[in-house]
């Protein structure tokens, strides 16, 4: 397969739709897991280039797309056919730069291996991630907050991305109020698609959040291990606790960046080389194992912690979905992988294709996702 055909094949796989909604055999979500090799050594951190001060949201012209995203399931009762994204010919880009036809936060421009902001590929990845997480944990949350949300209550999703989790929750709990914040607002859903009890704001998790102390009954944060360095997590979690009401819950969720039972190519290129490169940039690929500690360090009570394993490339429909997500996840991080693995684009395509082929019944690869939630104690 030549380079252009190989890349087109990978693109086609990465753009597969999410609307299959099969009968999922939840028996494959076992708690069995292999021991992980010792963590890679920590290397000196590079300059923090991702998070920057929020700037003005550009009001320039937009170009509407529908060819890819309109075929994807955005939320249980919503579609993204009316979504729009900025293009390189927009005049006012504010805090953004374009590289290889992808749009990055100004702070990301010198660090292009981090996820670009607000394009079809990133939208697809977020939708894959959401659906897979929902299947893993048989729902959108684990903290015991249903009763308070049924009667009202307020919820914050920190680092909400395209808002798919928040909007589904807003539909499920119409009497509660839902707030989503993220560093980039270009990926937020169009106002016409947002439920009336749901709002989105641009905010930086590394700054003091624009909310008073003790504001929310439930604060949810997930899948930021590619966006927050290990030494940033404690301060971010403390800020989440600050805005949580006494008696309210904070819930964290992260996936291990590790493939259990990986084949030889996946183990060498993903489990070893990629994880070492993440460490070199101050990111902890196993921060998921520290969620409980992060909550306990904030003096929260009733800390609960667990995980679910998901088959990747075997085990029926959920294994196929996980396999597709793996490709979408790493295709979206092409620039980082070329840097981490010291590869050309052509070499990377060959490696991704080889890794994809190893996700099969023979190896029975699986991934683990952890969650931890705890309650903010009442002050006496």
Structure characterization notes:
The chain has 380 residues and is α/β, with parallel strands linked by helices. The chain has one domain: Rossmann fold. 30% of the residues lie in helices and 18% in strands. It has helices at residues 3-14, 120-136, 146-151, 164-172, 233-242, 264-280, 291-296, 317-331, 334-341, 345-358; strands at 63-64, 84-85, 96-99, 102-105, 154-158, 177-182, 198-202, 216-222, 244-255, 301-311, 366-375. The strands form three sheets. Strands 7-6-5-8-9-11-10 form a seven-stranded mixed beta sheet. Strands 1-2 form a two-stranded antiparallel sheet. A two-stranded antiparallel ribbon has the order 3-4. Helix 5 links the parallel strand 8 and strand 9 (244-255). It is globular, with a radius of gyration of 20 Å. The chain starts with a helix and ends in a 5-residue tail after the last strand. Mean pLDDT is 76; it is low at 5-94, 96-104 and 106-113.
Topology:
Blueprint: H1 3-14, E1 63-64, E2 84-85, E3 96-99, E4 102-105, H2 120-136, H3 146-151, E5 154-158, H4 164-172, E6 177-182, E7 198-202, E8 216-222, H5 233-242, E9 244-255, H6 264-280, H7 291-296, E10 301-311, H8 317-331, H9 334-341, H10 345-358, E11 366-375
Parallel strand pairs: 5-6, 5-8, 6-7, 8-9
Antiparallel strand pairs: 1-2, 3-4, 9-11, 10-11
Helix pairs in contact: 1-8, 1-10, 2-8, 6-9, 6-10
Summarize the structure.
The protein has helices at residues 3-14, 120-136, 146-151, 164-172, 233-242, 264-280, 291-296, 317-331, 334-341, 345-358; strands at residues 63-64, 84-85, 96-99, 102-105, 154-158, 177-182, 198-202, 216-222, 244-255, 301-311, 366-375. Helix 4 (164-172) links the parallel strand 5 (154-158) and strand 6. It is 30% helix and 18% strand.
